Amino acid sequence: MNITAIEPRRKGLSALFIDGELAFRLDTETLLAYRFDVGRDITDEQLKEVVDASNLKRCKDKAMWLLSYRDYSHRELFDKLKKDFGEDAADQALSRCEELGLLDDERFTRRYSADLFHLKRLSKNGVRQKLLQKGVDRDLIDAVLEEFDVDEEEQIKEIIEKKYARVLSDEKGRRRAFAALQRMGYSYSAIKQAMRAYTDTEEFYE
Question: What percentage of the chain exceeds 90 in pLDDT?
Answer without folding.
Answer: 51
